[in-house]
Amino acid sequence: MLLLLSTPVWASHVVQVSEQVSLGQSGTFARPFLDQGSWYLGFGAGQGFWISPLLQEPWALPPRDEAWRLTPESQPMRDFALRRCDEGDWLLLGSADTLEADDSAYAYTFSSDWTPTGASTVAEGVGERSHNDMTTLCSGPLRGSFFPSDDGGWPKNWFVHLDEQGLPIGESLAADEPRMTGGAAFWDAEREQMVAVGFAYDPELQVVVYDADLQIVESHFIIISDAPERAYWPQGLLLIQDTWVVAHMLRDDATWAAGDEGDLALAFFDRNWQLKERVRLTNNPLDGGGQRPWLTLDGEQLLVAYDRQQELSLIPVTLDLTQFSTVQDTGFSEVDTADTGAGPGESCGCTQRRMMGPAGLWLLGLGLLLLRRRQL
Asked: Helix, strand or coil for residue 371?
């Protein structure tokens, strides 16, 4: 297993990259979050999505029987997106295969204490759109998820608006790239804009800034990797003071085996998307890459999560927050490593659609299960 030494990194934004932590459980879409001072981890496993307490010092997961499942066993799902909404409630989406791969999506909503409040079918058997690795937002005026469609080879991103119970209430076309499969979106409350980042089968990070009606304000195309390596899959996105932070994957396609696994890296940008710095976090062996990155900030600690060989993994990163309003030189800051050979839904202009989903007995059953989880 590849270990990152807990040693200083000579970079303006990053003080220290700690050792990569394997949480000892299989899963995907590792999504750590803080709630009332305690850490939890959302993750996909067994074709469902789960929440578990996350222990600290050292980082670890308790036995799996302390986790609870948010999605019904009757609906197997493949990929997931979990977002906390502005009022503290939660939005969860999952994708599934019905008639063909990734042609369906389902939404589930929860109160702040994980009491289920709704469930719906967002799309079912809609093969002309991709529903996997969805980019979801639940901030400002935008509550819902992107689902791209490759029409004539040019991506079109449809944003399906959801109400507070997860019911589809319309959809909007978010024109232009990036293709939002495997991307990220963030509501910039100060500027009242949405920032979307992604890649479209090329090496440039594509940043598109939209207004609340999903009309383009500006766009940027930024190289954040050095040949022969290619940056991709920027699912982690945060605005820290005046600095955008993107967590993404990195790989040399000629060297790595087939698939989407690779190394983990961070890119730092100023408020206007000028590249400030890049920091590589891993040097994974060719048979031990990861996927699906995420970022959570707690003070000066940035917790970077991904699944490495479908094993839930964390990398704690210590930041120098005094540097996050300062423009710095670009370039990779290499991390010393030791390889031991061994991751509020309006503003449409929409086409109206509404589909109910199977809430009923599942919601009641999950509600009873979660009565003992109110300490969250």
From this structure: helix
Cα 111 to Cα 366: distance, rounded to the nearest angstrom = 13
**Beta-strand pair 311-319/14-17:** antiparallel
At residue 301, the 3 state secondary structure works out as: strand
Say if CB 7 and CB 336 are below 8 A apart.
yes
Q: In this predicted model, what pLDDT tens digit does every residue of 220-275 receive, in sequence order?
A: 999 999 999 999 999 999 999 999 999 999 999 888 877 789 999 999 999 999 99
User: Residue 224: which of 274, 285, 295, 291 has the closest Cα?
Assistant: 274
* Distance between CA atoms of residues 372 and 303, nearest Å: 28
User: What tokens appear for 58 in the block?
Assistant: 């050292």
CB 105 within 8 A of CB 96: yes
Is residue 173 within 8 Å of 156, Cβ to Cβ? Answer: yes
Determine phi and psi for 41, rounding to 5 degrees: -130, 125
CA distance 346 to 38: 32
- For 240-243, the CB contacts below 8 A with 24+ separation are 240/297, 240/319, 240/321, 240/324, 241/321, 241/324, 241/325, 242/270, 242/271, 242/324, 242/325, 243/13, 243/268, 243/269, 243/270, 243/271, 243/276, 243/324, 243/325
Give Cα 172 distance to the centre of its chain. Answer: 21
What's the CA gap between 180 and 129, in Å, rounded?
11
- Residues 89, 31: Cα–Cα separation, whole Å: 16
Amino acid at 276: K
Compute how many other C-beta atoms are within 10 angstroms of the C-beta atom of residue 123.
Answer: 24
Q: What is the pTM of this model?
A: 0.85
C-alpha distances in Å from residue 296, one per residue of 32, 40, 173, 203 = 7, 11, 29, 25
